[in-house]
Specification:
By secondary structure, the protein is of the alpha/beta class. It is globular, with a radius of gyration of 20 Å. It starts with a strand and ends in a 23-residue tail after the last helix. The model has no long low-confidence stretch (mean pLDDT about 95). Bound molecules: 5'-O-[(R)-(carboxyoxy)(hydroxy)phosphoryl]adenosine and zinc ion. The site of zinc ion has 5 residues, from helix 4.
C-alpha cells in the first residue's frame, strides 16, 4: 500500500510517500521558521497561508523523487490534530480533495501518534511494549505503549511542555525562535557547575512534570547576572547549560521511575526535544543501568515531518481504518481516545 502523508499542524509543511512493502520512498519538508522568527513565535494565520502555498509543490516533489504518479497512491493520511486549527484545516482539506479526486480513502492521523511511531522508520525499530517519552513544543507525556492505539498515559506536564520551556527560556534570554536548538548550541560552550537549577517535582512521587518554574528561575538568574554587570556570552552559555541539565535530569528521573513502575526495559523518545543530544546521552546512560535500550528517530524525524504521518496512517489503513469525506480537525485530542489497531 502506497500512502501519501501530509503534516501541517504547526509551522512545518511535511509531505512523504510511504510504501508498506518498501518503506519510506521520499519525504520533503518546508520549515516556516524564517517566516515566524521576526515575531518571536508562530503566527497561526501566517502559518495557514504558507501551508496553502507549499503543499502542492511539495506533493509534486515527493512523487517525482519516488518516481511515482498520482494514480499509484492508494490512500492519503493527514494530521487531524492536535495543533493549530487553521493550519490543520489546510492539510485536511488538501488530503480530502485529493482522496476524492483520486478515488482513494483518506485518514486523519493523531500528530503525537505520528511522533511516537517515528522511530519505527529507523533500521532497528522498537518492539511493543515500551515506555514512550513524548517531548515536543506542545506536549510532555510519559505513555505506556502496548501496541498502535493502545496507550496508557502515565504522567504529563501540569504546565509548560518541555519544548515550550526551551522556547520561552530562550526568548527571555534574547535568543531567536525556536529556542530548543539555540539553547542546545549555547550549552555546548557552557561551564558545568557554575549555576545549578532545580529539578522540579522530582522530590515527590508520581510521573507528572512542571517546567514553568524553571523558566522563571532561569530568567531571575539571567537578570541577577545582568544587574551585576555581567551579560557576557559565556554567562549566557553557562545558564543555557544549567537549564538544559535541569530539564534533562528531570526527564531522566521520571523515565527511570516509569520503567521501574511498568517493569519495561525499552524507552522510546519522540518529538522535537528528542533531537537534543544531551537528553539522548542522559537517557542512554540511565538505560545502561537497566540493561535496557533507548530508541529515537533521526533528528529530521524528531521534529515535525510528513514521514511519521504517512507511516502511522499506513498502519491504520492496513488495519482497515478510514473515514468519510468530511473535513474535521481537532485542536485538542487526548491520545487515549484513539482506536487500537
Ligand atoms: O515536535 P515538534 O517539531 O513540534 C511540536 O509538535 O511541537 O517540536 C518542536 C519543539 C520546539 O519547542 C523546539 O524548540 C524543540 O522541539 N526542539 C529542541 C531541539 N530541537 C527542537 N529542544 C531541545 N533541543 C533540541 N535540539
Ligand atoms: Zn510535533
Amino acid at each position: 500500500m502506497l500512502v501519501l502523508g501530509l503534516e501541517t499542524s504547526c509551522d512545518e509543511t511535511g509531505v512523504a510517500l510511504y510504501d508498506s512493502e518498501r518503506g519510506l520512498l521520499a519525504d520533503a519538508l518546508f520549515s516556516q521558521i524564517d517566516l515566524h522568527r521576526v515575531f518571536g513565535g508562530v503566527v497561526p494565520e501566517l502559518a495557514s497561508r504558507d501551508h496553502v502555498k507549499r503543499m502542492l509543490p511539495l506533493i509534486r516533489q515527493v512523487l517525482d523523487e519516488a518516481g511515482r504518479q498520482a494514480v499509484d497512491v492508494d490512500a492519503v493520511a493527514y494530521t487531524a490534530g492536535p495543533g493549530l486549527v487553521g493550519a490543520l484545516l489546510v492539510g485536511a482539506s488538501c488530503a480530502q480533495a485529493l482522496a476524492l479526486a483520486w478515488g482513494v480513502p483518506a485518514l486523519g492521523v493523531h500528530h503525537m501518534e505520528g511522533h511516537l511511531l517515528a522511530p519505527m522508520l529507523e533500521e532497528q525499530p522498537p518492539a511493543f511494549p515500551f515506555v514512550a517519552l513524548l517531548v515536543s513544543g506542545g506536549h510532555t507525556q510519559l505513555v505506556r505503549v502496548d501496541g498502535i492505539g493502545r496507550y496508557e498515559l502515565l504522567g504529563e506536564s501540569v504546565d509548560d511542555a518541555a519544548g515550550e520551556a526551551f522556547d520561552k527560556t530562550a526568548k527571555l534570554m534574547g535568543l531567536p525562535y525556536p529556542g530548543g536548538p539555540e539553547i542546545a548550541r549555547l550549552a555546548e560552550q557552557g561551564v558545568a557547575g557554575r549555576f545549578v537549577f532545580p529539578r522540579p517535582m522530582t522530590d515527590r512521587p508520581g510521573l507528572d512534570f512542571s517546567f514553568s518554574g524553571l523558566k522563571t528561575f532561569t530568567l531571575n538568574t539571567w537578570q541577577q547576572c545582568r544587574e551585576a554587570g555581567d551579560d557576557s556570552e559565556q554567562t549566557r552559555c553557562d545558564i543555557a547549560l544549567a537549564f538544559q541539565q535541569a530539564v534533562v535530569e528531570t526527564l531522566t528521573i521520571k523515565c527511570r521511575r516509569a520503567l521501574k513502575q511498568t517493569g519495561l526495559k525499552s524507552l522510546v523518545i519522540a518529538g522535537g526535544v528528542s533531537a537534543n543530544r544531551s537528553l539522548r546521552q542522559g537517557l542512554e546512560t540511565m538505560l545502561g543501568e537497566f540493561k535496557g535500550k533507548v530508541f529515537y528517530a533521526r533528528p529530521r524525524f524528531c521534529t515535525d515531518n510528513g514521514a511519521m504521518i504517512a507511516y502511522a496512517g499506513c498502519q491504520r489503513l492496513l488495519a482497515g481504518q478510514h473515514e468519510g469525506p468530511e473535513i474535521q480537525v481537532q485542536a485538542r485530542w487526548p491520545m487515549e481516545q484513539l482506536q487500537p489497531v
